[in-house]
Amino acid sequence: MRIGNTEIRPAGGGLGCLLMILFSIVASIVLTVLLNLVV
Q: Of 25, 31, 34, 37, which sits 20 to 30 A from 4 (CA to CA)?
């Protein structure tokens, strides 16, 4: 992925990119559930 003149490579190639996306989805779900429990 390129932004301007900088080349951005996800750590671990395609698999690392997938894992990062999965992790962010899971983290947001967990945070939402925790917030709902607290409120």
A: 25
